[in-house]
Specification:
four-stranded antiparallel β-sheet; binds zinc ion; seven-stranded antiparallel β-sheet; 19 strands; globular; Membrane-bound Lytic Murein Transglycosylase D, Chain A; alpha+beta; Protein Transport Mog1p, Chain A
C-alpha cells in the first residue's frame, strides 16, 4: 500500500485519457491508413504530460544504476531497428512488483521490476520491450493504451472489491495487466512487430513465446495463491481472450529465424544483472511477511488470522481465506469529528444509500480512538456479515478495516477478527528500520541440488516450491541442471 494521497493524480489522468476522441493517420509500421485516437503531435504531448504522473505513481526503480543502464541499452537496441528510430523514446523501469509492461503515446515505454523478476533471459525482456514498442509504432490508440491499461492497475478499490473477489485477488497478485485493453488483432500486430525488432536486433525470436509461457505460469500461480486452483482463467484475462496468440508468435518466430545464425539469448548475462534486485514490495509499499503486514514508512503493523493470505495493492491491502472471508485495509483523510460519526458516514458511502450499523461503538485500540459496527449485506460470496472498523491515527489520517465473513463463518471468525483489530499498532522507529525488502538472489546449482533445495530458500510461508519453479520457468526436476544459475528470493 502506498501513501493513499499518491493515488489521486492518477485517477485524473485516466479520466483525461478516456475523454479523447478519434482521428485518422498513417501507420509507419504498415504504411496503411489507420483509425487512431489522436495525431502524432498530440500523442507526443499526451505522453509528455502523462509520463511524470506514471513516474509519480509508481516511482522509478533506481537502486542499481547499472540495471537502468542495462534496460536502456536493450531498449535502444530494439528502438534503433524500429520504424521510429528517428524519434526519441523514453524507457523506464518502474518500482512495482506487478508483472507489467505498458506504453503510452509519444514513445514512453515502461517495464516493472516485477516483470523483470519473471523473465529468465535478456532476449525475453527484449521481447516484452519490442512488443510495447510495437504498440507505440502501430499507434494502437491513446485511449486503450492508457485508460484500460492504467485503470487495471488500481482496479480493486474497496467498492469493487466487495463485489468481485476474483478481480480483487488477481489485481493484487500480479496478473498480467500488461496486455489487457487492446484488441486481439492489435496484440497480434504488436507481437509480430516485437518478433521483427527482436530478430533485427540479433535476439532469439522464440524468446517472445517463452516469455508468454512464463506469463501463463505466473497467472496459474496467482490463481493457486488465491485458492482458485481449479477455476479456469477468468473470462477477462488475456489468455482467455487470446488463446491462439502463442501459436502465432511461434509461427512468426519460425519465419524470422530462417537463416538466423546464433541469435542471442543472454540467460546468464541477464540473471547476473538482476542479482540483488528488490522482489515484491518495496519499503514505500509495506511488507507482507506471512500473516503480518508492516509498513515502515506509514509506521503501522497488523496481523491477519490463520488461513488468510494477503495481497498488497497500491491503494489497499486485502486478506482472504479459502471460504470467501476477506479483510480489506486502507487509509484516508481525517477531517474532524468522532470515529463513530466517521464510520456511520462510511457505511452510507459504501452501500450507496442510508444504512445503519449494528452495535456501532467507540473503542480504543492500543491508545488510538476507533469505532466499529457491523451490517449484513448480500455479496458475491453470499450473505455476509460486514464489520467496519475506523481507527484515528495521528492528526490527519484514518486507517480502516472491512471484515467480511459469509454468514456460515461469522461466529467462527468473530474472535480471529477481533484479534486482528487489536493487533493494529504503530511501529517504533527501530522496528521500522529493521524491515528489509526481499531480493532476487542468483545462485548456481550444484550436483545433488533439487527443487526442494531451493524451494527451502524461498522466504515465503506458502507455495515456496511453486514460486521457485514459476520464477525459474522450471516444469520438472529434470529442468534443474548442475552449473546453471537460478533465482531464489530472500532478504
Ligand atoms: Zn500488448
Amino acid at each position: 500500500m502506498l501513501n493513499w494521497l499518491r493515488s489521486l493524480p492518477f485517477l485524473v489522468l485516466i479520466g483525461l485519457m478516456a475523454a479523447l476522441l478519434g482521428a485518422c493517420s498513417t501507420n509507419p509500421a504498415t504504411g496503411q491508413s489507420d483509425f487512431t485516437i489522436v495525431s502524432a503531435a498530440e500523442e507526443r504531448q499526451i505522453g509528455a504530460e502523462a509520463h511524470p504522473q506514471v513516474v509519480e505513481q509508481f516511482g522509478v526503480y533506481e537502486e542499481f544504476p547499472d540495471l537502468n543502464a542495462y534496460v536502456a541499452i536493450i531498449s535502444s537496441r530494439l528502438h534503433s531497428v524500429s520504424e521510429m528510430s528517428n524519434q526519441p523514446f523514453t524507457f523506464s523501469l518502474l518500482d512495482s512488483d506487478m508483472v507489467n509492461a505498458f506504453a503510452i503515446p509519444g514513445g514512453y515505454v515502461y517495464v516493472t521490476r516485477g516483470l523483470m523478476a519473471l523473465a529468465n533471459s535478456e532476449a525475453e525482456l527484449a521481447g516484452v520491450i519490442g512488443h510495447e514498442i510495437g504498440h507505440v509504432i502501430a499507434r494502437h490508440g491513446a485511449q486503450r493504451m492508457t485508460q484500460q491499461t492504467l485503470a487495471g492497475l488500481g482496479v480493486a478499490v474497496v467498492g469493487i472489491a466487495l463485489q468481485d473477489r476474483n478481480l480483487m485477488n488477481l489485481a493484487g497478485a500480479g496478473a498480467m495487466a500488461w496486455i489487457t485493453g487492446y484488441s486481439r488483432s492489435q496484440e497480434l500486430a504488436s507481437d509480430e512487430l516485437g518478433v521483427r525488432y527482436l530478430t533485427r536486433a540479433g535476439y532469439d525470436p522464440f524468446s517472445m513465446a517463452s516469455f508468454l509461457e512464463q506469463l501463463e505460469r505466473q497467472s496459474q500461480l496467482a490463481r493457486q495463491f488465491a485458492f482458485q486452483d481449479n477455476e479456469p482463467d477468468p473470462a477477462n484475462s488475456w489468455f482467455a481472450t487470446h488463446p491462439r496468440t502463442q501459436d502465432r508468435v511461434v509461427a512468426a518466430a519460425e519465419i524470422a529465424s530462417i537463416g538466423l545464425v546464433d541469435p542471442f539469448v543472454g540467460r546468464n548475462t541477464y540473471l547476473r544483472q538482476i542479482d540483488g534486485m528488490v522482489f515484491g514490495d518495496s519499503p514505500a509499499q509495506g511488507f507482507i511477511r506471512g500473516r503480518v503486514f508492516s509498513h515502515p514508512e506509514l509506521r503501522l503493523t497488523f496481523e491477519v488470522p490463520d488461513g488468510f493470505r494477503m495481497v498488497n495493492a497500491p491503494t489497499h491491502v486485502t486478506a482472504f481465506n479459502r471460504d470467501g472471508a476477506a479483510i480489506i485495509f486502507d487509509g484516508g483523510a481525517y477531517s474532524g469529528g468522532s470515529m463513530v460519526n466517521y464510520t456511520q458516514t462510511w457505511i452510507t458511502e459504501l452501500a450507496g444509500r442510508q444504512m445503519a450499523l449494528n452495535d456501532l461503538e467507540s473503542i480504543t485500540i492500543n491508545g488510538m480512538e476507533a469505532a466499529t459496527g457491523w451490517v449484513r449485506l448480500p455479496l458475491q460470496q453470499g450473505d455476509s456479515e460486514v464489520r467496519l472498523l475506523a481507527i484515528r491515527y495521528g492528526s490527519d489520517t484514518v486507517y480502516r478495516f472491512v471484515f467480511i465473513a459469509p454468514v456460515g463463518q461469522a461466529s467462527t471468525l468473530a474472535t480471529p477478527f477481533r484479534r486482528t483489530t487489536y493487533s493494529f499498532r504503530q511501529l517504533s522507529g527501530s522496528e521500522a528500520q529493521a524491515l528489509k525488502p526481499l531480493r532476487i538472489r542468483i545462485v548456481q546449482v550444484r550436483a545433488g541440488d533439487t527443487i526442494t533445495t531451493f524451494a527451502n530458500q524461498m522466504q515465503f510461508e506458502n507455495l515456496q516450491r511453486e514460486r521457485f519453479m514459476v520464477l525459474n520457468g522450471l516444469t520438472s526436476e529434470a529442468d534443474l541442471q548442475a552449473g546453471m544459475l537460478v533465482k531464489v528470493v530472500r532478504e
